[in-house]
Amino acid sequence: MSNYIFILVGAVLVNNIVLVKMLGLCPFMGVSKKLETAYGMGAATTFVLTTATGASYIIDHFLLMPFGLEYLRTLSFIVTIAAVVQLTEMVIAKTSPTLQQTLGIYLPLITTNCAVLGVPLLNVSNGNNFVESLLFGAGSAVGFSGVLILFAAIRERIEGADVPTHFRGSAIAMVTAGLMALAFMGFAGLDKYQ
Amino acid sequence: MDILLAIAIMALGAVVLGAALGFASIKFKVEGDPLVEKIDAILPQTQCGQCGFPGCKPYAEAIAKGEVDINLCPPGGMEGVQRLADLLGREVKPLEAEEKPKQVARIDENTCIGCTLCIQACPVDAIVGAAKQMHTIIALQCTGCELCLPPCPVECIHMEVIPETLENWKWKYPVVAIQPVAARPSAKEAA
Amino acid sequence: MLAKLFKFYGGVKPPSNKTLSNQQPIRPAPLPSCLVVPLHQHIGGTPRPLVQAGDPVLKGQKIGEADGWISAAVHAPTSGTVVEVAMHVRPHVSGLESLCVVIEPDGKDEWIAHGPADRAAMSPADICQFLQEHGIVGLGGAGFPTHGKLKATPGVPMAELIINAAECEPYITCDDLLMRERADDVVRGIAVFRDMLQPTQVIIGVEDNKPEAIAAMQKAVEAQGEAFAVVPVPTLYPAGGAKQLIRVLTGKEVPGAMRSTADMGVQVFNVGTAYAAWRAIGHGEPLISRIVTLTGNVRGAGNVEALIGTPMDELLQLAEPNPDTDGIIMGGPMMGFLVPNEHAPIVKTSNCLIAHSERLFPPKAPEMPCIRCGACARACPHELQPFELYWHARAKDFGKTQQYHIFDCIECGCCSFVCPSRIPLVQYFRFAKSEIWAREKEKKAADEAKQRFEFKQFREEREKAEKAEKLAKAAAAQAAKKAAEAAAAASEAPATEQPAEAALDPAEAAKKAAIAAAMARAKAQREAAQPKNTDELTPEQAREMAEIEARRQQAGIVPEPADAQPATTETKPE
Lengths: 194, 191, 574
Description:
The complex is a heterotrimer of chains A (194), B (191) and C (574). By secondary structure, chain A is mainly alpha-helical. Chain A has one domain. Chain A is built from eight helices and no strands. Chain A has helices at 2-14, 25-30, 35-64, 73-95, 97-103, 114-126, 130-159, 170-184. The chains are: A mainly alpha (194), B mainly alpha (191), C alpha/beta (574). The interface between B and C is medium-sized, with 28 and 33 residues. Chain A: The complex is composed of six subunits: RnfA, RnfB, RnfC, RnfD, RnfE and RnfG.
């Protein structure tokens, strides 16, 4: 049990996929201008990551490892992720066209999101079982969404602030992201046993 | 042998996923485009055609398709560009055309010949009149689109800036741009 | 007496500076050189002028007719002649003009015939109309027509009638002096309101820095045998705000969205309004004067009974302003404003004129960035968050300002007063509010324009459809007629032609019939048409026409007969 908690805490905070592992920076910077889009992106990525991690584990455990085809991991994981993202895109187009318009190109770009490929690969290299895989995927996704939402909230406040002209837009966003990464370093060691 | 197995497994995976996606694409088919309504609600409805489209709805449809930029509407102003950018997640760009103050059209009644050409041109029916009768513009309904100016054969219509009266007076933005001390005698800002 | 008093959140205690002007009794102001009476002095519809340039008027004569229910009449403050009804500057922070009636006094100060109202014979609706006709509006600052507040909300019994004598703003003492000198008339006015609203309790709330006024009111209430409660409230700005006073005296908290406090069984009137109502009902005098405090950088501060329409600079002269006075503030130091044009007249809601000088009111320090100390939120009597409102108003994010309830702000100025960074917070809120209103107006106009555009498109489609239908009908009629003619002529024509004609495609026949019908119409029109301008010919014109006709006959130019046209076109190939 405590193992599961540590996996979760580790995935969400200690090894936060965006601010510590520095994966998935593209949607982090691109979709965090407004809080509503951040919620939407977070939800979409959570769904994709959890499903992809679980599916990847199954494919790896039952298809690739028995036949010694570990070298096909990257290829097969990408195919799975692409299918899951397509599915997510269709669901979003049906339920919320505004969100689809707002996310724009970043929705299909979840396929090429290095976090969405990185998490399954990290997962199988950690040697987790199925439940642990799902927790790891879900935790990473929650960490990603949480940081995305925090960052979007900060960026919305910065919109109303008196930022010097040359810092406006991406520059001040980068500075903020760097400060947040520094802050998250404070979680180091939280997932170690005793 | 190995390579054949690998190819077979990948092919199997591809077929399964492809079938799933095909099924999903039929089940989740989307009709229509409610986004156009949202864009149209932001546009100022002057139907002036300055964006190059015959009305606000066609411009909204073009924006929704992603064919055109959002900065082509002068009556909407930078305000409208900002709101479109917020809705669609696109970049805010400065307006293509100049932003003019709000105006209404006015017919010089001494010159009007009663030809009804301006009545046909007005997109919101803000001109009252009939053939060989005096034409006049209902100032409250006029959107300032200037579509009535070209058709008039005697050029009796001109635009007037709406004056500031107690009804439409607004408090000014209290922020004053900071200027270098050398440029102004006093460095005090407006309170 | 009340069981207990409540407290409202926030509030500030600025130095009151009231002893400057409350040492002297009320002086009547002499007649000014001219009176500029704006027609629109209250919330609601603009009154219509009833006089024009050159008309003589008597004191108290109605010069503006109320427009609608939420409106009140306007009256001439003294006898004289109307100079003009024109646009003049009004006491508004914008310095813009509005329609005013300018009266030149004749010095006689002659009253129009007037008398008290026969209350026994008047129904509540009659009394409301009487008050409207006599121009009684709220004298506390907003100027809402009083008769509009004298009805309880159906289904909500009136629990408390509160008379607002708090006068919490510094420098202002007009209500203080009114109560000290004319308490009897005030109590009679309150009784009028009591009779109209029938509340369970009548409470007169006075701040405890006015002991003489409290004593005078208590004496008057006892003398008239009324059961009104005169309650001293703790001195705290803005205890005189309607919602704040309701909270202090009754404990009820009026929600921000509620416009009429009558929905909660409470109604508040200013003490000056009660006095004006009694002058109208008991003596028939319309609202033509009010008590104005003259204070600030002056030698002779005090209160005067001034005529509505007196120019401000003339009125302030009565208080002998010091030479270094450089402006006039209308209102108090917290909620008042520097008048852009000092010739502007005083209106029904002008309660105070403060002579401004740099010594008394040092120039504001420059605005510095917000340090998020929260002092403004601690001071706000409506429990708003001024720092958030400031942030979003400055960023022009008006949706967010409304989320933080900007329209609940009463612009009392407590937040600006306590801000350590000297940020003029109220200016930002006023800017945001007027922008939001302007945008709502624009949106409404845009929606209407869209509706008109859509209707125009619909109408054009409809016209096209109607035209097509008409043509089709005419074509069908002509086809039938042609068929009948063909049948009649067929008996004479060779038999071979019949099948040929019968074999004509019906569409072809319809087209031919349509063209034939149009040409027949045109022919009929030409024959029936008369030149329109030959009805009233002068003999010369008739002679000229005859000469031209004669010349035509001579030259052999004969106008083509109408019959010739169709023959030539019918032979054209189709």
